[in-house]
Amino acid sequence: MRTLVLGVLTVAGLLGSARAENDSQSDLLGPRAIAVGEAMRGGATGSSAFALNPAGLPLNRELVFEGGYGYRASDSASIVGVSACDSTNPLPGCFFYEYVGASPEIGGMSGDRTTHIAGVALSRLLVPRVLIGATTKYYRFASDMAGDTDAKGFVFDIGATVRVTSIVNVGVAAQNLWATTESPRFPRAIGAGFMARPIPNLALSFDMRWKLDGDDQSARFGGGAELFLRSGSSVGIPVRAGGLRDNGTDKTYVSGGLGLSSMRWGADVTLRRMVAGGRETMVLASMRFFGPRMAAPGMGYSLGDE
């Protein structure tokens, strides 16, 4: 896995660069969500839950610690994230911290942008098939780029997940719905999607996100699939692929990822490439370490799926 991650990082560094804009709603996403076109609002667990839909935390029952790193060649951005999520208790929750440092070039001028985000997500199984959740985030954005304004404050997300059937989940979440300080870097948005598991080791998903603030109030939609292959040992291999379209920026992306997963640890790596609207490449990798893991009856997930 180490060789695979180093190889992907090398490829990303050699690919073309172009102007890129930070998207706080996407910078929180890890390799699993990026690989399937950001389409996990219907089944977000662990670190994907506080980024997409906090209501999904009770979908499994586990204690997991995760750390990840990403690199976006277009603006030389480093994306670092750590989290601890515990869904083994009656009130599942996550603590998380994310850092994004970028050096974009706009109009021949370059500069630096840094974003720090720390927060907590909590969720609750309201009734057997309905889950609700909320996320509180503190952010601090600083930039020496012309036209940027430094900002800091708290923003709040809410979400809900419905287990429609034993194989289909529907999720909806509002991001940055309330803020103590308004910032164009943290616009309000609402997203919805579904995740289906037609067979236990295959997940199919589709999401849409609408940005409610700013000049580009438009849709961002994507979808993907994850096939969980099990080897003869206790280690499984998740294979993921997806696509993403942003109508506001007229950009299209394709993505793919691989992983290794056991009862005690997991590793994931994802590569995303812009195929229309410019040239942008991003690579992300993460490691997860699990504590207690228990079955979640009626939730549609089995141990080792995530």
Describe the structure.
- With 306 residues, the protein is mainly β.
- It is built from 4 helices and 16 strands.
- The protein has a single domain, classed as Porin, CATH 2.40.160.
- The protein has helices spanning 2-14, 24-27, 31-35, 47-52; strands at residues 61-72, 77-86, 93-102, 105-106, 109-110, 113-127, 130-143, 151-163, 168-179, 189-199, 202-211, 219-230, 236-246, 251-261, 265-276, 281-294.
- It has a 14-stranded antiparallel beta barrel. Strands 4-5 form a two-stranded antiparallel sheet.
- Strand 13 and strand 14 (251-261) form a beta hairpin.
- The longest helix is centred in the N-terminal third of the chain and has 13 residues, at 2-14.
Percent of residues in β-strands: over 45%
Structural class: mainly beta
Order of strands in the sheet with most strands: 1-2-3-6-7-8-9-10-11-12-13-14-15-16
Q: Please state the overall shape, judged from the principal axes of the Cα atoms.
A: globular
Give the helices and strands as they follow along the chain: HHHHEEEEEEEEEEEEEEEE
Oligomer: single chain
**Overall radius of gyration:** 18 Å
Spans with pLDDT under 50 lasting ≥5 residues?
A: 1-20, 298-305
Tell me the number of helical segments per DSSP (H or I, 4 or more residues long).
4
Query: Whole-number average pLDDT?
Result: 87
CATH topology: Porin
Helix content: under 10%
> Terminal Cα separation, in Å?
17 Å
Biggest sheet features: 14 strands, antiparallel, barrel
Number of strands: 16
CATH H level, superfamily name: monomeric porin ompg
Please identify the top-level CATH class.
Mainly Beta
Indicate how many domains the architecture comprises: 1
CATH architecture, please? Beta Barrel
